[in-house]
């Protein structure tokens, strides 16, 4: 029995030495190839090879559509405020300065949100953080349609901008990671074209809702046509989530 164990130990030791030797030889081979090609990022090459080897199918097309829809929802959320300004001016007692602040507030939110959500996406995963940013965008948009004072409206438009600032960079980074190199440029161009789809949709929503006397108004609460329009503009982000 001891002789059998000794043989097993010797055999195991030989196997381990072979594995170590094989790993060292592979490392030397990879280093030599990297030195010749000038590219030391062999892991990046392996990833691109794996992405290309998986082929291209329904998943990739669906992912591009989802990314484009997210881009369109961001366009809707950004442009809706400039469209509703004439209708909301009297309800919120806005001056010219107030309207300027309101138009720029979403961009302030995007500036801050892009940095915050981008860092969180690298740490916790882009898909999870993208979903959170979409919820922040959608909920803030809906709440902003319900508030009755200009300061509160301005605050929630800033929060909505935070959500938009997260979804824009995360969508581009997340979608591009799943695209093989020969199709990545075309996929991102399609996503970019959805921005125009959002422009058309927000104009259609405005024409179909704002000019009409719908909703209700009480002495203490107002939910009229431009507020309904604002609620509708926030729904695509929640639908995407």
From TrEMBL:
Q: Which GO terms describe its molecular function?
A: transmembrane transporter activity
Which SUPFAM superfamilies does the record match to this protein? MFS general substrate transporter
User: Which controlled-vocabulary keywords does the entry list?
Assistant: Membrane, Transmembrane, Transmembrane helix, Transport
Recorded topology in the membrane:
Multi-pass membrane protein
Q: Name one Pfam family in it.
A: MFS_1
What are the transmembrane regions? 61-88, 100-117, 129-150, 156-175, 187-212
GO CC term, one of those recorded: membrane
Q: Where in the cell is it found?
A: Membrane
Q: Name all Major facilitator superfamily (MFS) profile domain ranges.
A: 60-241
Predominant location: membrane
Q: Does the keyword Transmembrane helix apply?
A: yes
Q: Does the keyword Transmembrane apply?
A: yes
Gene3D superfamilies xref list: MFS general substrate transporter like domains
Task: Determine the domain of life of the protein's source.
Answer: Eukaryota
Q: What is this protein called?
A: Major facilitator superfamily (MFS) profile domain-containing protein
According to its UniProt entry, this protein's organism is Cherax quadricarinatus (Australian red claw crayfish)
């Amino acid at each position: 029995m001891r002789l059998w164990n000794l043989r097993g130990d010797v055999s195991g030791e030989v196997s381990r030495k072979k594995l170590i030797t094989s790993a060292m030889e592979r490392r030397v081979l990879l280093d030599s190839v990297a030195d010749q090609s000038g590219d030391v990022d062999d892991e990046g090459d392996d990833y691109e090879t794996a992405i290309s080897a998986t082929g291209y199918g329904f998943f990739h097309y669906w992912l591009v559509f989802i990314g484009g829809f997210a881009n369109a929802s961001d366009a809707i959320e950004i442009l809706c405020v400039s469209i509703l300004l004439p209708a909301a001016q009297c309800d919120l007692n806005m001056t010219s300065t107030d309207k300027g602040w309101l138009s720029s507030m979403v961009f302030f939110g995007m500036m801050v949100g892009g940095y915050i959500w981008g860092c969180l996406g690298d740490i916790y995963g882009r898909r999870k953080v993208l979903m959170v940013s979409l919820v922040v965008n959608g909920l803030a948009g809906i709440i902003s349609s319900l508030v009755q004072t200009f300061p509160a409206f301005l605050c929630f438009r800033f929060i909505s901008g935070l959500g938009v600032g997260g979804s824009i960079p995360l969508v581009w980074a997340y979608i591009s990671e799943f695209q093989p190199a020969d199709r990545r440029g075309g996929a991102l161009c399609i996503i970019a074209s959805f921005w125009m789809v959002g422009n058309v949709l927000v104009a259609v929503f405005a024409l179909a809702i704002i000019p009409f006397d719908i909703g209700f108004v009480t002495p203490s609460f107002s939910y009229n046509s431009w507020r309904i329009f604002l609620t509708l503009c926030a729904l695509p982000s929640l639908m995407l989530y």
